[in-house]
Amino acid sequence: MNSQSNNSRYMVDLVKVSKIYLPDIQALTDVSLSVNRGEILFLIGKSGAGKSTLLRLLSRMDKQTKGVVEVDGHDLSKIAGGKLQRLRRNIGFAFQDFKLLPDKTVAQNIAVAMEVSYTRSSVIRMRTKKLLHHLGLADKYNTPACELSRGEQQRVSIARAVANNPGLILADEPTGNLDRETTQLVMDLFRKYNERGATLVIATHDESIYRDTDHRIIELREGRIVNGHPAPEPDHAFADRMDEEQGSPEEDDLWMSDQ
Amino acid sequence: MNFIIAVFTQTFRNLFQTWSAQLLTLITITLSVLIFAFFYLIYTNVQHAGQQLDDDLRLVIYLDEEPAEEMQEEYRKKIVKFDKVERIEFVSSKEAYGRFAAQLEEDRDVLEDMPRDFLPPSIEVYPVRSLDTLTKIKRFSDYLVSLPGVLKVQYGREWVERFYTFVKLLRIIVFLSGSLLILTTTFMVANTIRLTLLSRKDELELLRLVGASTHYIRLPFFLEGALQGFIGSAAGMAALFLLFNWIKLRFAVSSIFQLFEFTFFPFPVVIAIIVISSLLCAGGSFSSTRKFLQL
Ligand SMILES: Nc1ncnc2c1ncn2[C@@H]1O[C@H](COP(=O)(O)OP(=O)(O)OP(=O)(O)O)[C@@H](O)[C@H]1O
Ligand SMILES: [Mg+2]
């Protein structure tokens, strides 16, 4: 984990956040939401409910109109420059529109997320291969991204989001183009990263991935939270466990080890 | 260390991906360095040439009568007042006669009937041999004519004047080609970089989203510019060197080359031109990325 873990209680903390797109589209209204470190949170709601908008605020792709957005203890309206860059390196975002570079190969697309942290190229290659293997794309390593199917592109964008072992993973509709089996692969991958300590916020309207979950589900409707369960008390035991694990640089997990 | 490797990897990847635009820029830089350095080379050589002009740069002041000892001293003072000179020689009528006779060699008998002092006495002024002197020589001559007892002043007028206009022209050309060099290198590089930036808009956007540092995004473009400047100017200088040697071989027997000794730039000048071009290009790319990325 490359978070220089802040000691704030929550990984994500929104207080009365509103977002108005000019001229007058009220995308989010008074959203208050806290996400614990190590939690998996499902963000559901109809198309246009404001899920993507919320995720974009979390990575500072957009700025809220009102309210406070804190990620990993940083108030995003006050962060800029090097600090924002470091924070973003600790956030993996699987964009709804993928944002893959069409001319680059699958491997190069995934590498981008690690290169900005100056990861050694041997490590990059190793991680990329493992991720592709896990997502059933082992034979696409050198394929240009533009030659992939939508579902394949989606998996590549997910691989890129998790490749840098971020502390916070934002997945916007990560299974929209995937069949049941492949969806399972993706959710397995997310679970693995979560077990290693990553916090996940998954925006989706794919009922199959949250139907039987015991993780928190937040529903947005027209920019408001409708099933407002308050955030559970922060899981201190979890945070302690994470701190211990961060103490040892050895990565024993199959998915993240660089050996 | 990893940062440096990452930045270099990025740089070479860019160069590789946009090589056709790079090549065009490179050729432009090479050509403008070549043009500038060519004229600058001629200019420096011509400047040195002044030192080899020797006797041609002599002013002869003809006097109406033989100057006495103290009169000579007076002339000497007045001449030196105008400008530093290398040497002043007084030539009496008799000495002039002697020289003339020596020049005639076999035919000296034609002088037999002439009086020994039929040639006027003169003062020969040898100005300091430099380009600067050349440009002043006309005024010098005008000044000397105004001295008392001076009949006329002679110097290689036509030659000197032609040389002077030539040097003036060269100076303008060097100045223009120098400006051209600065414009093309900075502008072309800034423009190529801008095109690269535009074509890689999505990638740069993504880099920012995944938290690339400003230096990581920007340094490759800076290096790219510096590299273009370095390779372009080095190629330009190499081309000039080849051209120089070819001309030297080709025209080795022609008279201009007998007159001056043509030399190539000394090594430090070559280095300076390359370094300055590289810096100009790096600067061009730097300003272009700043505008575009608004960093
Ligand atoms: N850049 C923008 N400019 C103006 N309006 C926007 C912009 N982005 C989103 N919106 C509006 O904000 C509202 C919420 O959009 P958002 O993309 O967050 O929905 P969503 O829940 O992600 O929907 P979907 O499930 O279809 O992805 C919509 O009404 C949308 O039209
Ligand atoms: Mg969306």
Walk me through what this model shows:
The complex is a heterodimer of chains A (about 260) and B (about 300). Chain A is of the alpha/beta class and about 260 residues long. Chain A is about 35% helix and about 25% strand. Chain A has 8 helices and 10 strands. Chain A is globular. Chain B folds into 2 domains: about 180 residues, no CATH class; about 100 residues, Alpha-Beta Plaits (2-Layer Sandwich). Helix content of chain B is about 70%, strand content about 10%. Chain B contains 10 helices and 4 strands, in the order ααβαβαβαβααααα. A 4-stranded antiparallel β-sheet of chain B has the order 2-3-1-4. In chain B, α5 runs antiparallel to α6. The longest helix of chain B is centred in the middle third of the chain and has 43 residues. The radius of gyration of chain B is 30 Å and the shape is elongated. The model of chain B has no long low-confidence stretch (mean pLDDT about 80). Chains A and B meet through α2 and α3 of A and α1 and α7 of B. The structure holds adenosine-5'-triphosphate and magnesium ion. The site of adenosine-5'-triphosphate has 13 residues of chain A, from β2 and α1.
List the helices and strands and how they pair.
The complex is a heterodimer of chains A (259) and B (295).
Chain A: E1 10-21, E2 25-36, E3 40-44, H1 51-58, E4 66-71, E5 74-75, H2 81-89, E6 91-94, H3 106-115, H4 121-134, H5 150-163, E7 168-172, H6 180-195, E8 199-203, H7 207-210, E9 216-221, E10 224-225, H8 236-247
Parallel strand pairs in A: 3-8, 3-9, 6-7, 7-8
Antiparallel strand pairs in A: 1-2, 1-4, 4-5, 9-10
Helix pairs in contact in A: 3-4, 3-5
Chain B: H1 2-17, H2 19-52, E1 59-63, H3 69-82, E2 85-91, H4 93-104, E3 122-127, H5 131-145, E4 150-154, H6 157-199, H7 201-209, H8 214-250, H9 255-259, H10 267-293
Antiparallel strand pairs in B: 1-3, 1-4, 2-3
The complex binds adenosine-5'-triphosphate and magnesium ion.
